Amino acid sequence: MDMGAMTIRITNTGEERCAPQHQYGPAVRGCYLIHYAVSGRGQYIARGHTWEVHACQGFLIAPGDVTTYRADAFDPWHYLWIGYAGSGSAELTRMAGLDPARPVFDAPDVDSMAELMRAADQDVRALRLGELGALGCLMRIMARIGQFNAPRQTDPRRGVLMEYFGKATWFIEGNLSQGVTVDEVAAYVGLCRSQLYRVFMAADGASPQQWIQRARLRRARELLLSQPALTLSEVAASAGYSGAPQMADAFRRFEHTSPREFRRASHNE
Questions:
Q1: CA 77 to chain centre
Q2: What's the number of domains the chain is made of?
Q3: More confident residue, 163 or 21
Q4: Helix 110-125 to helix 208-226 angle, to the nearest 10 degrees?
Q5: What is the pLDDT of residue 266?
Q6: Most buried of the four, 100, 187, 193, 201, by CB within 10 Å?
Q7: Which residues face 58 on adjacent strands?
Q8: Which of 124, 149, 174 is a domain's end point?
Q9: Is residue 133 classed exposed, middle or buried when 0-12, 13-18 and 19+ CB atoms within 10 A define those classes?
């Protein structure tokens, strides 16, 4: 892709559900590489620092850096990645608000990020014009990342808002199986319900309750796909539903199918 005289090319893409304590590195890459956590948590180590990275976050690997990353022993990552290089890659990285010195970024819209990264992976594998489609996905991925991470000097309140939003979504993801409520989230971040509502609407366009519903459904989908030995009741409990019937209602409403059919169809693909 040309950006004036600059070029960008996709180097690699992929997806992995990590085994507990899965580790890559120490290693050095020759390209920029973005990993994005759909679920789970782990550690990223670079430049003498260690960062904790959980669901709804990602990390940037810069060319030439010696890096190591390791999935958690009890809640390992499920992540996707996309790599890129070329004379325009450093500028693209900067425009998205990414900095190798502060490599961890927030991107709370998991569904959109995962969809774009999977689309890029599919396009890379396409026989004709695949890289063109993948580059389009990369631009949209970077725009998504920049939406939450690029500097906004004209509105310093935005940074405070995103701190509240990031803290709230981290708490939700970590407490789904306990049936987390909006009141509990508000108490954790130190806001009243109406203030929390305004934070979520400004940051994501969804209310806190809607975000919790989406997070539960996302967790249930992940478990149905990755843990075939779990019963529907066990999946429901892990995702924070009061029972399998409540989970089934959510699937019928948002997925237009039942959890059982969702699992069966996915495994038959």
A1: 10
A2: 2
A3: 21
A4: 40
A5: 67
A6: 100
A7: 36, 105
A8: 149
A9: middle
Q: What is the mean pLDDT of residues 195-219?
A: 87
Which has the minimum average pLDDT: 95-99, 166-170, 257-261? Answer: 166-170
Indicate whether 142 and 164 sit together in one domain: no
56 shares its domain with 130: yes
Cβ count within 10 A of residue 211: 22
DSSP count for the chain of H helices, then E strands: 10, 11
- Buried/exposed 170-184: b ≥16 CB within 10 Å, e otherwise: bbbbebbeeebebee
Neighbours of 132 (CB within 10 A): 12
Contact 123, 130 (CB under 8 A): yes
Q: Are residues 111 and 74 in the same domain?
A: yes
pTM over 0.85: no
Q: Is the peptide bond before 26 cis (omega within 30 degrees of 0)?
A: yes
- Cα separation, 30 vs 66, in Å, equals 11
Same domain as 103, residue 234: no
Domain boundary among 149, 170, 191: 149
In a shared domain, residues 194 and 121 = no
What is the reported pLDDT for 18? 95
Q: Which residue has the tokens 């430049």?
A: 47
- Higher-pLDDT residue of 64 and 126 is 64
* Claim to verify: residue 138 and residue 103 sit in the same structural domain: yes
Q: In sequence order, which residues have a C-beta less than 8 Å from that of residue 172 and are 6 or more positions away?
A: 180, 185, 211, 212, 215
What's the CATH code of the domain at 262? 1.10.10.60
DSSP lists the bridge partners of residue 16 as 79
Write out the residue range of the structural domain in which residue 236 sits.
157-268
